[in-house]
Amino acid sequence: MKLRLALLIVLLCSHFSVWAHKASDSYLVVEAKGPEVIAQWDIALRDIDFAMGLDGDGNGEITWGELRAGQASVEAWALSRLELHRGGLCVLKLTSMQVDSHTDGSYAVLHIAGGCPDSSGDLRLNYRLLFDLDSLHRGLLRLTVDGTTHSTVLSPTSGELRFGSEEVSRLLQFRQYLLEGIWHIWIGFDHILFLLSLLLPAVLVHVDNRWRGVVRFAEAWREVLWVVTAFTAAHSITLSLAALGWIALPSRLVESAIALSVVLAAANNLWPVVAQRRWVVAFCFGLIHGFGFASVLAELGLPADALLLSLIGFNLGVEVGQLAIVGVFLPLSFAVRNSRFYLRGVFIWGSLLIVLIASIWLVERALDIKVVIESPLK
């Protein structure tokens, strides 16, 4: 049985390592004034290489020379995945290309200009970058139509969107960021593993140097309430500060610290250092996780009023996503808390698995390398 569990851990680690990094994003800024359209589109070099294979020498890095040599191919690929309509299809062309740095690496900056058949009416947009290769990809859009600014997050389900020069619906914008907050926590595997590391001992109590199940559900619920509240308060603070641009930390440092927080939280289940008041751990590490949550908002460059609204919606979405996880996990874990299955299989082996997965993430993020674990079945 132990050999089978060890084999399962190795196999899972080999798959979880692909989720160790920030989800794929591009940043699209469009301004339409009359029939004229200008745009700036920032696309990660790693995503361009993933889609087109620009790394000619296979050294894992895209040089400016390689990007410039493939400029025509990049232009054809990108513009085939973006359509604008205003009285008909707008004709777009690449005017120049540069390279810039975002918090998570180097990006190709595509400067685009074009014209539309009509000078008034709604502007329709269809965005399809990378959706055929990566369903988790998101496009962060800021679009201005005749002086009215819109912002949204583009996903595979967005389809064709219409934007007019009339006042933006704040309710629709709030709903968009609420849903994105829920989505972000559900695809944020490091955030989920950190939360699970704190939830695993919530139905247990550490007495006489051993773990045993709590007597009443209220005890477990009270513990979870403290943990989730502390985590929420902490990441709300740093999420707001980072998204407003008041504090900025390197993405590599933030992601490494998040991975370390997962390692320490899960290791505390195996070798308890903080067996009581785990809400303190949740609060301290939640401050770091807030910077991770803010990355998708800080890069969008929203106007101040829209940023405040998106902050509230996104933060509430994160909380809804967390509560959904708690709502599923807590009743099930309480029901089997005293069983050998939970105490040994879920709590001990689960915590060990989380430590190993997060350790791989920590090494990859801190050293900027890719850890590859070959399956022993090959």
What features would you describe in this structure?
This protein has about 375 residues and is α+β, with helices and mostly antiparallel strands. It folds into 2 domains: about 140 residues, no CATH class; about 190 residues. The chain is about 50% helix and about 20% strand. It contains 11 helices and 11 strands. The strands form 3 sheets. The chain has a 6-stranded mixed beta sheet with strand order 4-5-2-1-7-8. Strands 3-6-9 form a 3-stranded antiparallel beta sheet, with no helix packed on it. Helix 6 runs parallel beside helix 8 and helix 7 packs antiparallel against helix 10. The chain is elongated. The protein starts with a helix and ends in an 11-residue tail after the last helix.
- Described by its quaternary structure, the protein is single chain
Order of helices and strands: HEEHHHEEEEEEEHHEEHHHHH
The amount of beta strand, in percent, is 15-25%
What is the count of DSSP helices, taking H or I runs of 4+ residues? 11
What's the total number of strands?
Answer: 11
The total tally of domains equals 2
- Biggest beta sheet attributes: 6 strands, mixed
On the 0 to 100 scale, the average pLDDT is 83
Percentage of helical residues? Answer: 40-55%
What features would you highlight for this structure?
378 residues; 11 helices; alpha+beta; three-stranded antiparallel sheet; disordered C terminus; single chain
